Amino acid sequence: MTIFYKGLEVKYGDYVGDVDFISEQYITICLRRLDHKSRDVCILIYPPQWKDVELINGNRQSYEK
Prior knowledge:
Structural class: mainly beta
Number of strands: 5
Oligomer: single chain
Helix content: under 10%
Number of helices: 1
Distance between the termini: 16 Å
Strand content: 35-45%
Order of helices and strands: EEEEEH
Strand order of the largest sheet: 4-3-2-1-5
Largest sheet: 5 strands, antiparallel
């Protein structure tokens, strides 16, 4: 089972960002933060693709606790 938490820095394909929203239907990874949340650039990742989300090395220690 894949466990995500808000703020976790991850890589998906060529994209690097942080997990911003988590539900059973999808997660969002924000690639760029702008002056208002409605303008942030985020991508949706559905459960079949969760296996392709990689932790950024700096997060691995806090993730495994």
